[in-house]
Structure formats: C-alpha cells, structure tokens
Write a structure and sequence with these properties.
It contains 15 helices and 17 strands. The protein is of the alpha/beta class.
Length: 545
C-alpha cells in the first residue's frame, strides 16, 4: 500500500528566524515545509506549486497577511489559511478569518498550540473539498435527473398525443363510415317497410341513393386501407419507366364524365416519348384524385389545365391548375391531413378527406414530391414532381373538353306538427324527408347550416327540432345553447342526429341537454318513436304553461 504523502505547508513571515524555527519544528513532525519572508515571494511560490496549508503573519511590510490570504485563496480556493498574530491583534486576526482564514495562532508560537490548529485546518479543508465534490455530484445528478424528466415528459406528451390521435381517428372513422351507411340502411328500410309506401320511380331513386352511398363507402374503405398500409410501411410500389402520355390519356377518359356534369373544360398536353420512373397504377391513382378534386371544387364553366415541364436534376413536373375558389393560408396548412375536407363537408360534392393525404404518401413512396400553389378567388395548382427515366424535351400542346349540368329536388309535406331538421348533407336530409312524407300529421322544414336553422326556428317555432352535430359555421352544441338562451325557442325539444356515435359523443350530447341523441345510420322505428315522444312532451309542456 502506498504511503500517504506529507502535508505541504508554506510559512510566510518577515522574520526569517521565525520562519526557520517553524519549518524545523513542523518538519520533524512530518510536514513538508517551505518558508518565505514576504507576501510577494509567497504568491510567486503559490503560482508554481500547490500547498495544503498557509501560515501567514498578520503584519508584514508591503502586503500584509489579510491581503495575502485573499490573493492566495484566489489562486487556490482549497488552500487552508492560518493567521499568525502577536497579542493585542486578535481583532485583526478575526478580520482575516472573515476573508477566508480558517484560524489564527498567537505569537510566540508554541508547538502544543500549533499542532491542534493545523489538524483542525486540515480536517476543515478536507471537509470543504468533500462537500464541494458532493455538491458537484448533486448538481450533476440533478442535471441528469432534469434531463431524464424532460425526456419522460416528452415521452408522456407523445404518448398522450398518440392516444389522442387514435381517439380522434376512431371517432372520425366512426363518423365517416356511418354517414354513407345512414343512407344505405335508411333507404333499404324504406324499401322493406310496409308502412312507408313508395312508387316504382321512388324505389328506383332510393336504390340509386343506396348504390351511390355504397360506392362512397367502398372508396372510403379502400383509401383508409391504402393509407394504413402506407403509414405502416406494408404498401409497396413497383418502380419502372412509365409512358406519361398513356397515363394522362386514361385519366382524361375517366374524369371526362365528371367534368361534363360540372361544365368544366379540360386541357391535357400532348406529350411524346416522356417516361417517368414510378408505379403506373399508383401514378394513375394520384392523378385521378388530383383531377377529381380540381373538377369537383371548381366554379361553374371553369377549367382544369394539365401541364408538364422539366425540373432540375432530371425530373418532370406535372401540374394540374383549376379555376376554383382557391385556398387560404389556414387551409393550405391542413391540406394533407386525413379526413380534413377544409370546411367543404357542407357542400354537395362527396369526399372522404383521405385522398390528398394518401396522394402525398404515394408520391413520396415513388420518390417524388407534391406541392401546391393557390390564390383566393383565382384557383389552385397542384404539382407532382417525379424522376424521368431519361432527360428529354417536352413538347406540349393543350387540348379541350366539354360539360353538362344537373339539378335535384326537395319536397316536404305541410300538416299539423312542424319539424325543423338542421342538416348539411343532402342525402341525410332526403332520407328524413322520405320518412316523414307518409305522415299526414307532420310537416318538415330544413336548414343547411346552424345560422339558417336558428332563424327558421325563431320564425316558425317548430314543435320539434332535429340537429346534426357536425355542421358548417356553428355545430349542434352551439345551436342547442343558442336555442335554449332564446325564450321563444327554449322549450322546444331538440333531438341530436349525428354520425358521431362514440360513447363519449352520446354522453356529451346528453350533458348538453338534447332531448335525445340519435346516431346514424338512422333506425326508422327508433327515429319515429323519438319524434312521437318529443311531440307528446312538447304538447304537454304547451298545455301546462
């Protein structure tokens, strides 16, 4: 075992004899001694060597003991300093201790007095060093703990965000699936019902609604499955050279009927010899989705123009420009979010809100980039950039397309009790119209949004109000609050009819004060029973007023 090194002591006194005496006496006791006769000399030594103890005379020519202690501890904060002073200067010694000295010794120094002071000073010094090390460890551990806490908090937030996203996804999926199912099951119930007669023409129309809703449901399911496979990494693409002209020709043929119905002019470029590296089926899916949106959300007699141009680094940019209403900054920020239709849910055009999210994933999966430029009241241009199989020039010549329009009808029957249905989906409104139509005791009013619905409620004071929850402008909960706040409409039973059918949605509806909460798809018997009970409650309330 290695021997412990001796404690190094520096003695500073302007009396050389006193320095030699202390060095000799303490050296015999095992201390490693060194002496200086001035503070300046001592500081020079301290800059070159390290000591555990400093014995400094209080009063010396030039720099005194107090200044020496301050300067020495500035060089080495762990240095244990002891002041030596003659009798009558204890106050000065105490002052020296206030600036960092650990103790003082009265002169003339006696060995019996010096040794205990040195031992205490060494013990105190070691305690200071140990405490400083412990404090450093505590600070380091605290920093590590703080970093761990930050990581844990971030992990907690991410877990909460993931759970919230899962809940939102499930709720949105429930809503989106129930919306077409509501039309399918509702019209099927009418066709199967003996108490709701319909003409052959109506039956054909109802079957048309069922087919349309079924196709919408199939598109939704396929897009959800594709999106899930892309995000899980299980959807693969086959990258190969694909003739761009043939893909655009097929897309033009597929979207032409949609453009004709909307009286939208189509322009496609004539391209020869352009081959892009992509998956042919997925490129066609991407282009049809972008073209369909450009047609559906265009203005009457508008246009959709497809263009191609070379991009940097051997790539081609395919552009789809429309003359629609354009997108604002907020809509652009949420453009590629699943199930987000950017406030167009109230329109007559069907959609799932998944197409663009899936389109972006597919383009990126093929090594491409999708971007958009838009101006309000001018239109939007979607760009799909893909790698070329080889660098070529692009001859472009536009071609045109044509259009046609169509209209629909609504009807309601006028009878004794008035129902007001606030619903933005035409198919759902038509379903309720057909349910109510055979009843001679009811007449139906309808509103496509909350503000219109509240105005009709105040004007006609209906016996029962039916409200969809997810509406443009203000939702069903705000409508319920505004109706209750108005004395004219406060006592009218309000029934929620919503595709938001999670248990939490139903519980929230009950807490909001709806007379009852019906979920889509509508069960006709339950729906009719709810109407009858609400009418009884309304009539009873009117009688007892």
């Amino acid at each position: 075992m290695d021997a412990k090194p001796p404690i190094r002591v520096l003695v500073v006194d302007d009396e050389a004899n006193h320095v030699r005496a202390l060095c000799d006496t303490l050296g015999i006791r095992g201390y490693a001694m060194m002496g200086c006769c001035s503070a300046e000399e001592a500081l020079a030594v301290l800059r070159q060597a390290q000591f555990e103890l400093l014995l400094a005379d209080l009063i010396m020519p030039g720099t005194g003991g107090i200044e020496l202690v301050q300067a020495a501890r500035a060089l080495d904060p762990d240095l244990a300093c002891i002041i030596m002073t003659g009798e009558g200067s204890i106050a000065s010694a105490v002052q020296a201790m206030q600036v960092g000295a650990l103790d003082y010794i009265l002169k003339p120094c006696k060995l019996s007095a010096i040794l205990p002071v040195l031992a205490r000073a060494i013990a105190t010094r070691q305690l200071r060093i140990d405490n400083a090390a412990l404090e450093r460890q505590v600070r380091e551990h605290a920093a590590v703990l703080a970093a761990l806490n930050v990581d844990l908090e971030q992990a907690r937030r991410e877990a909460e965000r993931s759970n919230e996203m899962k809940s939102v996804f499930l709720a949105t999926m429930s809503h989106e699936l129930r919306t077409p199912l509501n039309a399918i099951l509702g019209f099927a119930q009418i066709l199967n019902s003996e108490t709701l007669p319909s003409t052959p023409a109506q039956k054909k129309q109802f079957v048309g609604h069922i087919l349309q809703a079924g196709k919408h449901l199939l598109v939704l399911i396929n897009e959800v499955l594709d999106l899930a496979r892309v995000e899980s990494g299980t959807l693969t693409v086959s990258i190969e050279p694909v003739a761009l002209a043939s893909v655009l020709t097929e897309c033009a043929a597929l979207v032409a009927p949609l453009a004709d119905r909307g009286q939208i002019a189509l322009s496609f470029p004539t391209i020869a010899g352009v081959h892009v590296l992509c998956d042919r089926i997925r490129l066609k899916q991407v282009m049809i989705n972008i073209l369909s949106n450009a047609i559906k959300y265009n203005r009457e007699h508008g246009s959709v123009t497809v263009s191609c141009e070379l991009a940097d680094e051997g790539k081609v940019r395919i552009g789809v420009r429309d003359t629609g209403a354009g997108l604002d900054a907020t809509q652009l920020a949420h453009l590629f979010e699943p199930f987000n239709r950017l406030g167009r849910d109230a329109g007559v055009e069907e959609g799932t809100g998944i197409g663009l999210a899936l389109t972006r994933h597919l383009v990126e999966l093929m090594g491409g980039v999708i971007s958009v430029e838009s101006r309000a009241d001018v239109g939007s241009t979607f760009w799909v950039t893909l790698p070329l199989s080889k660098q070529i020039a692009l001859p472009v010549a536009p071609a045109d397309g044509g259009a046609a329009n169509g209209t629909g009808r609504t009807r309601a029957s006028r009878t004794i009790s008035t129902l007001l249905y606030i619903e933005d989906n035409p198919g759902n409104l038509r379903l309720v119209e057909e349910i109510v139509l055979p009843r001679a005791d009811l007449r139906l009013l309808s509103a496509p949004d909350g503000h219109t619905g509240i105005a009709l409620a105040r004007q006609h004071l209906p016996h029962v109000i039916l409200v969809d929850i997810n509406l443009p402008g203000i939702d069903g909960y705000e409508i319920r609050r505004l109706l209750r706040a108005d004395p004219r409409t406060a006592r009218i039973p309000v029934i929620a009819v919503s595709a938001s059918a999670m248990p939490s949605d139903v519980a929230r509806g009950k807490e909001a004060g709806f007379y009852c909460y019906l979920t889509k798809p509508i069960d006709i018997d339950i729906f009719s029973d709810a109407i009858d009970r609400a009418l009884v409650a309304r009539n009873a309330d009117t009688t007892t007023k």
